[in-house]
Amino acid sequence: MQKPKATLYISYDGMTDPLGQSQVLPYLFGLAGAGYSIILVSAEKEENFRQHQASIAALIREKGGERLQWEPLRYHKRPPVLSTLWDIGAMYRQVQRLLKRYDVQLLHCRSYISALIGLRVKRRFGIPFLFDMRGFWVEERVEGGLWKLENPLYRQVYRFFKQKEREFFKEAAAVVSLTEAGKAIIRENRWTSAPIEVIPCCADLDFFSYERVSETDKAAARQTLGVQAGDRIVSYLGSLGTWYMLDEMLDFFAVLLAAHPRYTFLFITKDDPRQVYSAARQKGIDPTKIKVVAASRQEVPVLACLSDFSVFFIRPSFSKQASSPTKHAELLGLGIPVFCNAGVGDTDAVTRAVHPGLLIPALDSETFSQSIARLPEILAMPRESLRLVAQEQYSLTEGVEKYKTLYHALLKRI
């Protein structure tokens, strides 16, 4: 009996994580809808899987139909390094089992851990793999302080992955970069002769649309938050992890308050609120001017639309040239102007296309004051013009089309 043909998608990010729900599943739903049969292998964090497995499985059945099959495995966090090795082994064994049941014609490997498996399968079985790199992961680990190279263990891990990175680029059938800046670095260093497609972190612009948010919804949200009539809001959306510059964003807010004292800073994040309030107190900012709220994906559009504008600062570095902040796509889709710093991926170019005054070249009080002085002209921009930039740069529909074109080209070779 002939085995059914399929593409095997391998992700070390879980589908019960917010990242998987925004940056993996929507693309796979689009590909499945276009007729591609896909088997999805993912590593799921225990608590997230316990809470969301049923709803995600139902969503995959609804949106993916018979063409998208989910094979979740458990993710292990501890002990460092050894837990990852365990997970890699488990995922490889699962892939071997699936190869016995399906005629896998393409391996789609999301980031470096998955590419380890893809490279091994490619070498053993001759199945081509797509290296969907998601950024310069090895350098991110070092620059973010997660791999301290003075530690002999992490130094060895770093060397291992730098060697593997060279092999991924050399042997991949194609590469996906999140940014044009990342693609340029790859080409300049001649790391690969394979095709490189640029597909940024896109957003579902049907979901992230101001047309879905009513004034009644916003009024109810303001009341729940305790925001007074006449008060204005600046927002921050997302996690406050390794790369986001909380202190500098609060410095920006302090300068904003000096010029416009009716503003409140709304953090839409699932991170510990105490970290935000503690940092604000150290800056001498009145804690009543800070609101921190954990929101589900469904709640984000309404909360974000309470703000006149949003802000994010990301620590610039070599690895961040290959980064594409999802929040930028989502906020622009909602018609919200976004202040951000220079030096991160293609964000500079996109931000200038919205309004040059939104790009902050230096993170100091004088530059903040100059940027804030341009608020009236920035806030006068029609929401439609901001959303148009999102549609041109970050459309999920366009992202899916690029993957479809790539799949078609790669599978046609077989």
Automatic annotation (TrEMBL):
Keyword hit for Transferase: yes
Molecular-function annotations in GO: glycosyltransferase activity
Domain Glycosyltransferase subfamily 4-like N-terminal residue range list: 51-201
Matches recorded under InterPro entries: Glyco_trans_4-like_N
SUPFAM superfamilies: UDP-Glycosyltransferase/glycogen phosphorylase
Keyword Transferase: yes
Entry keywords, A to Z: Transferase
Protein name: Putative glycosyl transferase
Organism annotation: Cesiribacter andamanensis AMV16
Source organism phylogeny: Bacteria, Pseudomonadati, Bacteroidota, Cytophagia, Cytophagales
